[in-house]
Design a protein that fits this description.
This protein has 496 residues and is an alpha/beta fold. It is 28% helix and 26% strand. The protein has three domains: 2-69, no CATH class; 77-247 and 361-377 and 420-487, 3-Layer(bba) Sandwich (FAD/NAD(P)-binding domain), CATH 3.50.50; 255-350. It is built from 13 helices and 20 strands. The chain binds flavin-adenine dinucleotide. Flavin-adenine dinucleotide is lined by residues 85-91, 108-111, 116-117, 120-121, 123, 125, 127-128, 195-196, 228-231, 233, 252, 355-357, 433-434, 447-449, 452. The site of flavin-adenine dinucleotide has 36 residues, from helix 3, helix 4, strand 8 and helix 12.
Length: 496
């Protein structure tokens, strides 16, 4: 009996100093028992390794509950037409577009809500929707529908002023995204708190994607996969060509301060306080500060934190979150202590995630360049229009502005080709959003929210087309994707 006990014991906890009572969990015929045994030390028994030389007397045995007993969990498996990884700007729109084009779609998002930068960082801007000079709308389709549902435009609008509209609640956007995703019924399944974490490839295809959530590791087989993680996670793990341009743009934690009294001196004095804090060694670097009153007249939304690092390195990302939080509080306290208008203010919230501007980018079938953007190169397979300025943040303090003086070329609206979303080497993978295929300079313009959404719509539509015609996204003709988008009121609006 004792030998049998020890062959099947799943855990042994023993007070080795006193050699008295030993607690064992025992799995006998699929039932767990908690046993307490009295241990009698025999002669010549020097330590616990000499197990054979001790004798146990059973004191008590109590069965553990059924819930504890049934610990073996089968891995959950999903089979879908289209898998979208990342429910941010590009991902929400990709999932909706795939579903509206009749593909059974699964959306994975590591946060407990979708929206990406808008909800994980709290950014209310719909940049890239309209060209700067005239305010002409250059992105329609689902991104326009989102702005419309947020009450910031009207159905027949052709222009928007300002060209970079803000929504009045990022929390409301969370709910809108939920409602829109849910409105597709069983056609879209959303798994929140689910992080894609591993990929298998076979015969030039992504054959499986693994993700981690409260079910443990789950396994997904999809006919077409869209990487909207912002960081090109799926592309990197599928070992398709990608790049990272050093130095990467810095990360920024946004935060909000309540009960601020606006006054003409506020921004100047706030800037002086940050210069002082940096000189005193309390702040490694900052930009701006951008102090924006877009949510309420006494609520300041702050763009100022700047942290260097590589967000695809888990240790670096953790360090950046800690640094970002610390810097946000240094700024808040500096202002509260010395800047008129902040005397009675309080820290509302930050994040919840630090904002990541740049990490990996796909090196796809076509790499969009700054020359393409500046010369307004026309592409037959254009699927979206970009129009934002080349918005590159440096890794040092820039007082009063986000960029170094003289940088930040403002292009006229330009084409983004389908091939800039298509991976090389694997046939069923598209990458949309800020990690699509472009040079670092080009991506500093294409990365903005609405342009990312427009790419998402193209990717979701293309993936569904590939499923329908039983082919792969790599084999599709981008001209056909453009035609389908146009038929659905989306696609490029580069020419006025
Ligand atoms: C601080 C900051 C300020 C910015 N300011 C502006 C601005 O003023 N105006 C503007 O238009 N743009 C701005 N941008 C740029 C823009 O917001 C982003 O580039 C844009 O959000 C890109 O969209 P995306 O879908 O590629 O990425 P995101 O919106 O970041 O979405 C990526 C999503 O994928 C999820 N995810 C990541 N990895 C995984 C994984 N492995 N598994 C599952 N889910 C995953 C994330 O949680 C996230 O929801 C700013 C960016 C930053 C960082």
């Amino acid at each position: 009996m004792q030998r049998e006990l020890f062959r099947t014991a799943s855990s042994v906890v023993m007070d080795t100093k006193r050699w008295r009572n030993c607690h064992i969990q025992l799995d006998l015929q699929s039932r767990l028992y908690a046993l307490t045994l009295h241990c009698i030390r025999l002669q010549n028994c020097a330590n616990w390794d000499s197990l054979a030389t001790v004798r146990f007397v059973l004191i008590s045995a109590s069965p553990l509950s059924e819930r504890v007993c049934s610990m073996s969990i089968e891995r959950k498996k999903y089979q879908v037409d289209v898998l979208v990884c990342g429910g941010g700007c590009a991902g929400i729109v990709a999932a909706i577009a795939a579903s509206r084009n009749n593909a059974k779609t699964l959306l994975l998002e590591r946060a407990g809500f979708s929206g990406g930068i808008i909800t994980t960082v709290g950014l209310p801007y719909f940049d890239g929707i309209a060209e700067k000079k005239t305010g002409r709308i250059v992105v329609r389709g689902i991104p326009f529908e989102l702005l419309l549902k947020m009450g910031r435009t009207s159905p027949n609008a052709t222009h928007i002023k300002p060209h970079n509209p803000t929504i009045n609640s990022t929390e409301r956007f969370k709910v809108l995204a939920d409602q829109l995703l849910e409105s597709h019924g069983e056609q879209i399944q959303v798994l929140y708190h689910t992080t894609a974490c591993e990929v298998r490839t076979k015969n030039s295809r992504v054959s499986k994607v693994f993700a981690a959530n409260k079910d443990g590791l789950i396994e997904i087989e999809a006919k077409q996969v869209i990487d909207c993680t912002g960081d090109g996670d799926i592309a990197a793990w599928a070992e398709v060509p990608i790049e990272k341009t050093e130095p990467l743009m810095p990360m920024t934690l946004h935060f909000r301060i309540g009960n601020v009294r606006q006054n003409p001196e506020l921004r100047t004095k706030a800037r002086e306080a940050l210069v002082h804090a940096e000189k005193a060694g309390k702040l490694p670097m900052f930009y701006g500060p951008g102090i924006i009153f877009c949510f309420a007249k006494d609520e300041a939304y702050i763009h100022a934190v700047r942290v260097s690092g590589d967000a695809t390195n888990a240790e670096d990302l953790s360090r950046a979150e800690v640094q970002g939080r610390s810097d946000a509080w240094t700024m808040f306290e500096a202002w509260k202590n010395s800047v008129p208008g902040f005397e009675d203010s309080y820290f509302i919230s930050c994040g919840p995630y630090i904002g990541i501007r740049e990490t990996r980018r796909l090196v796809g079938q076509y790499v969009l360049t700054e020359q393409d953007i500046k010369s307004r190169k026309s592409f037959d397979d254009a699927i979206a229009t970009g129009c934002w300025y080349m918005d590159r943040h440096p890794n040092h303090t820039t007082i009063g502005t986000a960029n170094d003086a003289g940088t930040g070329y403002q292009p006229a609206p330009y084409d983004i080709p389908y091939r800039a979303l298509v991976a090389r080497k694997v046939d069923n993978l598209l990458v949309a959003g800020r990690c699509h295929s472009a040079t670092a300079a080009a991506a500093s313009s294409t990365r903005v929210t609405v342009t990312a959404m427009a790419m998402g719509q193209a990717a979701g539509t293309a993936a569904a087309m590939a499923v329908k015609s039983n082919t792969s996204v790599a084999a599709l003709d981008g001209v056909d994707v453009r035609e389908q988008l146009t038929a659905q009121g989306a696609g490029p609006f580069t020419q006025g």
